[in-house]
Specification:
Blueprint lengths: L2 E5 L2 E8 L8 E8 L11 E7 L6 E7 L1 H15 L2 H13 L13 H11 L5 H8 L1
Antiparallel strand pairs: 1-2, 2-3, 4-5
Helix pairs in contact: 1-2, 3-4
Length: 133
């Protein structure tokens, strides 16, 4: 485990896996919601087989549905106004094949560009540019 912390309503852990038989090390991020609410199986979470593009590792896990992630991320964007939440919402919206729209008032466009360029591959920078023009 590389990092573990408790943030507001979230337990977070970052694991790095490095084995001699793997072509390269990889990371696993685990986020657990501690919000005081009841989730319903099928609507809010589901059992999914998770696979990696980089290794032959697969995991069976209970994960939030895209619909639930989308709703929670909309709240996060409205409350926190963080660039990473904005990108996460755009990404989830793409997976749901929905139209993306968000009010950018209150966002520092230079901070969006600066922060997201640190975390995203250059091939995704076009998304950032359309928000910061």
């Amino acid at each position: 485990m590389v990092e573990a912390l408790a943030e507001r309503f979230t337990l977070f852990a970052l694991f790095k896996v490095s084995e001699a038989y793997l072509p390269q090390p990889f990371s696993i991020t685990l986020e657990i919601s501690t919000r005081p609410e009841t989730w319903e199986r099928g609507r809010d979470f589901e059992l999914r087989l998770l696979a990696s593009d980089f290794t032959n590792v697969t995991v069976l896990a209970q994960v939030a549905t895209l619909e639930r992630m989308w709703a929670d991320k909309q709240t996060a964007v409205a409350d926190r106004r963080q660039p990473r939440d904005l990108y996460d919402l755009w990404f989830i919206t793409q997976k749901l094949r929905r139209e993306f729209s968000v009010e950018l008032a209150g966002f520092d466009r230079h901070a969006i560009r600066r922060e997201l360029r640190k975390y995203l591959p250059q091939s995704h920078w076009g998304v950032i540019e359309q928000w910061t023009e």
